[in-house]
Design goal:
Elements lengths: L1 E2 L3 E8 L1 H4 L15 H18 E5 L2 E3 L3 E6 L5 E8 L5 E6 L11 E6 L5 E7 L5 E5 L16 H14 L1 H11 L5 H23 L7 H19 L9 H22 L10 H29 L3 H27 L2
Antiparallel strand pairs: 1-2, 2-6, 3-4, 3-7, 5-6, 7-10, 8-9
Amino acid sequence: MRILPERVEAEFTFARADIETLIALDADGDGKVSALELALAKPAVEALARQAWGIRVDDTRLDIEKIALVLDETNNLHLKASFPMRTGRTLTAHALLIDRLPRGHRQFVTLLDSTNGVVAELLLSAQQDVIAMDLKNVSGAPASPPAARTFSDFLKLGIEHIITGYDHLLFLFALLMVAPRFREAALIITSFTVAHSITLALATLNVVRFGSQFVEPLIAASIVYVGIENLFYRGAAPARWRLTFAFGLVHGFGFASALRDLGVHSGTTGIVLPLLSFNLGVEAGQVMTAALVLPLIWWARKAPSFVRFAVPACSGLVIALGGWWLLMRTVL
């Protein structure tokens, strides 16, 4: 991993045996990976490369800009990636694939500065999978500190997260679609808010932790379940608020994952400020969404054909989308 003023260049090298525990490359089983097999596996390998490292400068995550794949003569796979650099105090790199590789796997990491001088060499394991370095000690790295995020910054990020979180929005829409009165809708929204606020706080404070490999499929499964339940209820389900509370606990872990990616444990943000303001932003986004959707649903419910035909059709679409996300997060 080389740290330059304008970017971070990283090259990850995998033995074929290791990477094939994650992605099938040798389709014909002849012990070699051909150019055609590599081309066919390229989308999956590129997706894996985007999951290989979580790199942040202070509280800002760096996203991969470019990916290149090279297969050498010994069938080792080299993933070359480029991340846009930014100014800051500390660069943190989290090796995200170690837990998914065979037990006892190690990753040897060499960190270079802009002059190709060795800054550090480390051996990472499942127990120690994070690298952190002070950028002022790295030759050529931009070192001016970024402005700390404020209450309004995290509030805005919370609103953006719920507005662009299509799975959360679809779950909320599926719940509200069969709520005929304000009381039922208020119970649903309140129970969802209370539930995900609990797990958001617990997960952000590291009291309870669940990996995204478990949380994301459960969120998709919750969408499928609610869509199926909608097919059997033409009014609000008697205990729907209880169901909403249970699934809201799961969605809270999803919100916490997004909040952790923003670096809530960094020295510039602390924990209480981002936790409170991000959660308020999520609630504001939910209220805005419900304020737009509920009047339309209640107006449409005046027509008998809406309950008879539109609710089952929309529920079928909810099931299809939730099922597709479930497949993408578990099998594909």
